[in-house]
Design a protein that fits this description.
Layout (H helix, E strand, L loop, with lengths): L2 E5 L3 H13 L3 E5 L2 H10 L4 E4 L8 H11 L5 E5 L15 E4 L5 H13 L10
Parallel strand pairs: 1-2, 1-3, 3-4, 4-5
Length: about 130
């Protein structure tokens, strides 16, 4: 089972992502801050990280930099409400970039795409 770490400071979004991804067959770990995400990554291996950018304290760009310093093979999908970050060179190391939406299909598709690129078979899509 593919393991996804979702990092977002909004509790309702963490719940939404957890429910959707678990329903699809993923194992989901959650962090509500960059610091918490780094702690989790010290203790658990993950197949992919879904990371918000705009968070208090350590933002997603700094968190991504530190994640990649721990393991530069960990793919990170930046998941943010701000499309303008796509042009920021600091976000270029991300495996993918998704603008938040009430429809999670793009995020789900990007997760599956990144996993397939790494040779990991994602769960079958629901019918």
């Amino acid at each position: 089972m593919a393991r996804v770490l979702v990092v977002d400071d909004e509790p309702h979004l963490l719940l939404l992502y957890r429910q959707e991804l678990e329903y699809l067959g993923y194992e989901v770990l959650e962090a509500s801050s960059g610091a918490e995400a780094l702690e989790i990554l010290q203790e658990h291996s993950v197949d992919i990280v879904v990371l918000d950018i705009a968070m208090p304290g350590m933002d997603g760009i700094e968190t991504m930099r530190r994640i990649l310093a721990l393991n530069n093979q960990t793919p990170v999908i930046l998941n943010t409400a701000y499309g303008s970050y796509r042009e920021d060179f600091l976000t270029w190391p991300a495996a993918r970039y998704v603008v938040k939406s009430s429809n999670l299909q793009e995020l789900v598709d990007k997760i599956a795409e990144v996993l397939r690129d790494r040779g990991i078979t994602p769960p079958e899509p629901r019918q």
